[in-house]
Amino acid sequence: MTATRTTCAYCGVGCGIVATRTGARSVEIKGDPEHPANHGRLCSKGTHLGETVGLEGRLLHPMIGKRRANWDKALDLVAKRFRQAIAEHGPDSVAFYVSGQLLTEDYYVANKLMKGFIGSGNIDTNSRLCMSSAVAGHVRAFGEDVVPASYDDLDAADLIILVGSNTAWCHPIVYQRIRARCDAGAKLVVIDPRRTETCEGADLHLAIRPGSDVALMNGLLAHCREAGLVDEAYLTASVSVPENFWDQVGEGSDLWSVARTCEVPAADLRRFYELFAAHPRTITLFSQGINQSIRGTDQVNAILNLHLATGRIGKPGAAPFSITGQPNAMGGREVGGLASSLASHMDFAPENRARVQRFWASPTIAPKPGLKAVDLFRAMGEGRIKALWIMATNPAVSMPDAGAVREALARCPFVVISDVIAETDCTPFAHVRLPATGWGEKDGTVTNSERRVSRQRALFEAPGEARPDWWIIKEIGRRMGWPGDFAYARPADIFREHARLSAYQNDGARLFDLGDKVAIGNVDYEAMAPFRWGGDAFADGRFPTPDGRARLVPVAQMPLPAPLANWPLTLNTGRYRDQWHTMTRTGLSPKLSRHREEPLVEVHPEDAAAQGLEDGGLARVSTPQGASLFRVQFSTGQRRGEIFTPIHWTDRQSTGGRTGLLPRPLVDPHSGQPGFKSTPAKIEAVAPAWRGFLITTEAMDRPDCLWATRVSVPGGTLYELAGDGDAQAIEARLPRGERIESFDRARGSHRVAVMRDGRLVAALFRTERGLLPKREWLVEQLGQAATAALLAGAPPGAREDRGPIICLCFDVGLKTIVAAIGSQQLTTVEAVGAALSAGTNCGSCRPAIRRILDENRSAANG
């Protein structure tokens, strides 16, 4: 069948994909060798997109309450309730909460409806949770939200600094490009409190104290001034330097003070300074570890100050580089999807408001910025938001203090959700649910981290009654009274209008300008190749400010709090390599589920010993906002006094792992971005009465017990279980069929296999004091003819234990790699790849293979 060029659904790298349909709802996925973002490479998530395009769990029809409705009835109700709220309480009584999963065309129509026709700034996006501090920092320094770097700069850099980014897991294709450059001689510095896979092979890892980034960057900048590395000519020509700026930078920025604040050895800090001094072509990539802080904007500006003052910007291989989290966070920023911007990189200045209103010919225009995400849900809890529309996101999981967010949703008189998934953690609060198209069905554009616009093209027809988000929004606009202003027939119509607005009375005031696309025809839009707006930003030393100069922004290190008596630990949160956001897509993939099957709390072994925790046991992580259970994993990569949990698990997948319950709803004062990285916490061991697991071929609700975590496996579902007095209820829910059972009362063990027509449909293994068998062989028996070995949990004879899966692409386990290293005397990652194929596809596992080699070498040397 014909191949379709489209873009990946996940991170902001924006990889191109060549997708070939192989059936009604199946597709073969390959990297697009012609796309400049990835040149044919894909990470594990992109590689396995084909496992996520089925219709399992999809919302396929409009729903009013629990009843199916037709589109006219549902849309009329939404329009009516929004009109009523506005008439009775004013335009600021309604709000949209949208998502970086939307395409730019979707985002544009939503922003236009809210800000130009409803007349409120109350549209914000989940990009507020990951990108907004970078936006605020860019605007303060450059006058506009412009990322002044491209992926090609990585190929020219001599020093690459990664700050607050586990790039090897979160942006694997960028990391592989970094490693290729390092193999050619570039140096790599990783600045991160955790020792992650990204640190493997780095020339220097600075495990700084969380929140000390400003001290680190100010210290480096002070050193640069003392060493004569400040580019005075560039400052004179292109940068405004506030009075007393250098005095503020120098205060407390000597080597020993910075080392003490950051809690790193002075020798390592000096080494960092020396590397920076020796390599003018420096790229500093930063991500959530910088942004997700209550001082995130200052941390961003500390990095930008460093590059501006040393002239390391606007040149090949020299720039600060914010790498975005979501596939279209950048597109949302371009159209005004954040409450703090108006449209097309314009703010709410009177001349901009007048300009945008003229262009839209709209009856009103938002008079001021709207409520940012945390404030929006707080206002809802206070009763000030009467109608909310949530698009393509799940704030009941992803927002900080998610328990309070659920209480706010419960109080809101009218909640609309447009999504691809029928049941999420938000849907119990929805009065109306509208079925939207998902990846593989959507048609439009996205913008990646380097400002490159790419087409996302549909592979499948929309299932059921699902409709594109832009269509749903424009139909509401028409029903609210503006039919002529939302008369779009196709995404190309919206893109042309978006391009015209970007160029309208711009005259070079803003770098964001798509003026060359305003007359693009439908055929050319369909065939549009990836392009990068803004070119080589700031290469001419000019910036989109009134005087054409960038600004150094004075920022100071705030005092770091001491541990609290009742909350002695610091909680950090983040992503796993093979999962995405709240797992509504990646959770469907058996392959992607294998890397980290359960939500883990990573704890330093000495902290674990002090709290009586067992590696592989259960623990309750608590903060003043809430508590949730996690599986314990000892990790020497954690700093003492700090713990880490992943963001992905929800009530739909697990009774535990609810990280969103835990962070404080405190935000950066400039960007409004929450501080997810440094929440006071405590941890305590939890000892269940029994442990077990359940595998089944049939769909079933998550078992109700202390610990139940859903894992997608080939042919069905695995639930990891633990509980107290609730085992009988789980056994009662096993599928119907012929049962065979065994009991071991000495160990408190019970094993049940359920057959139907001689084939295994479910099995439950539970024990109080005994051992549990490996899951892999039993999972392979699902749907197969029953064997006498089922209750033994293993086939007769020896079976290779491959250990945890390291290489997902080729299904290679830890023990297989270790054995090959020993038997074949392998000494390099490339040699392991040649022997086992591990690490030769997406490359995400290469840091782990490098660590295994190092550990094996250390063990051999005694």
Description of the structure:
By secondary structure, this protein is of the alpha/beta class. It contains 28 helices and 34 strands. The strands form eight sheets. Strands 5-4-16-15-14-6-7 form a seven-stranded mixed beta sheet, with helices on one face. A six-stranded mixed beta barrel has the order 21-25-22-24-23-26. A six-stranded antiparallel beta sheet has the order 28-29-27-32-31-30, with no helix packed on it. A hairpin with a 4-residue loop joins strand 30 and strand 31 (749-756). Helix 3 packs across helix 21 (491-503) and helix 8 (213-226) packs antiparallel against helix 11 (255-262). The model has no long low-confidence stretch (mean pLDDT 95).
Question: Nutshell version of this structure?
Answer:
The chain is α/β, with parallel strands linked by helices. It contains 28 helices and 34 strands.
Measured by DSSP, the beta-strand proportion falls in: 15-25%
User: How many β strands by DSSP?
Assistant: 34
Query: Which outline best applies?
Result: globular
- In the predicted model, the low-confidence regions spanning at least 5 consecutive residues are none
Largest sheet: 7 strands, mixed
SS class: alpha/beta
Instruction: Write out the strand line-up for the largest beta sheet, numbering strands in chain order.
Output: 5-4-16-15-14-6-7
Portion of residues within helices: 25-40%
Radius of gyration over alpha carbons? 27 Å
Spatial separation of the terminal alpha carbons = 57 Å
Mean pLDDT: 95
DSSP helical segment count = 28
Which key features would you list for this structure?
862 residues; alpha/beta; seven-stranded mixed β-sheet; six-stranded mixed beta barrel; 28 helices
